[in-house]
Amino acid sequence: MANPDFLGSRKVGTTTVLFPYGCNDSSCGYCDVTVGNKSYMMMASVDRPGENLLGITPDDYKTLLDRGWRRSGNIIYKPDMRGSCCQEYTIRLKSSAFKPNSKQRKATNAWSKFIHGIDYKRDQVQKYPISREEKRRKRLSPFNVVEKIHESEYATLKAKNPLEPAHKFEIVLEENNFTEEKYQLFEHYQKKIHNDEASEGGFKRFLCANPFKPPYSVDDKGRKIGAYHQCYYLDGRLIAMAVLDLLPDCVSGVYFMYHTDFSQWSFGKLSAVREIALAEEGGYEYYYMGYYIHSCPKMRYKCEYQPAEILDPECYDWHSFNDDFRKILDVKPYYSPSLETILTTEGSEQSMTLLKNYYINTKKGISSTHDDTVFTTDMSGVVKLEDISPIIDDTRILVGRKLAIAEMISGWEEMPIDEPGNAKHKIAEAIATLGLELTPKVIVCLALGQQ
Ligand SMILES: [Zn+2]
């Protein structure tokens, strides 16, 4: 056994510390069932100044995104794709490879035209004509996403010439703090778009709280890192806002809301193009636009941002997210290319039954019980118990405010790993969902109240 004094003297510092909630079964916003949206959850920070040891590093969170996790406020969760009513696939897009389609290009240009106003273009042509060569370059060059998205912004326009556009449009990337103006926008959006009530507490929990452990403001390449609000101001009024996570090598869209006074301008498209441009310009390789939900027609628009990649929910390889992949999802709601290869290659009767069970969503509509764990529910994409056993004893845990390792828990050796309810099973669940690569970097907090 390791020396407890040595472990106790270590500082938790900037290490990721997570509190496992366990399995959760909630209502689904995509298909409106009251239970059936299943996931495994962990708390990554608590709102208790000076007391908070919990938190996740942006690096570790990026690793989790690539294992199908996402966050809601300071809660991180991994959907059980096999057991849920709707399958939430992780998708991403290489920001430099993005090819906007005609609708996306049109939305970007139309907004710029509205901002400029009728007189602006005429005055520009008369007073500040561009050279023939520049005209030719513009005509021949493909749609440059970064250049085009900035064409509506006041600072960009003023840098070109002193003409005043019809509207002053500004984009500000700011801290994810609460303001009354942001909340008013959220309340309006909830009511008009989701037909739902809003509360200040909910806004703070959902869109201001974040799980990231400081310090994280800038990485070694000079890129901003952390949770931000990207605010859209029109003539000084906040008209839209994106909640964004800037992470090592990616921009992850968390949420977007806008005022319905501007519904005609396709803000869904404008915001996605803007976020891709932010990734491209800021040197973040990828843009993660949230889960793709094939079963929900309203969410299918996400496949229009191409060329996209989709995450295999079992082995976490990336695949081209093209028409062929989407056609498979029409018939197999849960689809893992790696699993399909393994099972069809083996070809035995047993594996064919397994395959059938995997793809026909047999657990759909069956609500979870309180005792469910990622092992008893056969959750998608988790590490198997036999692979966890060799490393579980050394898992770092937080007991009170002191660090220990799992095998120091009293009665540890006698605890059956496959018995729900005991500490060993709970730690095994955390490892199963975090993965073998990340687990050695993480501390599992077993009792929140003792912090
Ligand atoms: Zn659903």
From TrEMBL:
Domain named N-end rule aminoacyl transferase C-terminal: residues: 181-312
Alphabetically ordered keywords of this record: Acyltransferase, Transferase, Ubl conjugation pathway
Enzyme Commission number(s) from the entry: 2.3.2.8
Catalytic activity: an N-terminal L-alpha-aminoacyl-[protein] + L-arginyl-tRNA(Arg) = an N-terminal L-arginyl-L-aminoacyl-[protein] + tRNA(Arg) + H(+)
Listed GO MF terms: arginyl-tRNA--protein transferase activity
Alphabetized Pfam families for the sequence: ATE_C, ATE_N
Database matches in InterPro entries: Acyl_CoA_acyltransferase, Arg-tRNA-P_Trfase_1_euk, N-end_Aminoacyl_Trfase, N-end_Aminoacyl_Trfase_C, N-end_Aminoacyl_Trfase_N
Coiled coil start-end: none
Cellular component, GO annotation: cytoplasm
Record domain N-end aminoacyl transferase N-terminal: where: 26-106
Its job: Involved in the post-translational conjugation of arginine to the N-terminal aspartate or glutamate of a protein. This arginylation is required for degradation of the protein via the ubiquitin pathway.
Family in the record: Belongs to the R-transferase family.
The name this protein goes by in its record: Arginyl-tRNA--protein transferase 1
Organism: Arthrobotrys conoides
Gene name of the encoded protein: ATE1_1
